[in-house]
Amino acid sequence: MSDSFTAKQVAEHKDVDKGLYIIIDGGVYALESFVDEHPGGAKILKRVGGKDASKQFWKYHNESVLKKYGEKLKVGTLKEEAKL
Fold first, then answer.
1. How far is CA 78 from CA 16, 23, 31, in A?
2. Which residues belong to any copy of the Cytochrome b5 heme-binding domain (predicted)?
3. Which of 51, 52, 63, 79 is 20 to 30 A from 10, comparing alpha carbons?
4. Strand order in the sheet with 74-78
């Protein structure tokens, strides 16, 4: 797990067919294998696919959830992009 992604690359993975990626605090997570297991339902994950879901994640979860699932779902990190 050493891949780094731009926000644009993550946005291309916005649904299960293309690989459902989300960003949480700069980490990129692939959720297509987890969608059906998510206790809150698949709909919420599909809604944030391809986006930074940090705000939504921390609203409903604590750090233990990220520790439990993060290692197996994390596929990389978000690249820093120059703001012009």
1. 20, 8, 16
2. 2-79
3. 63
4. 3-5, 74-78, 27-30, 21-24
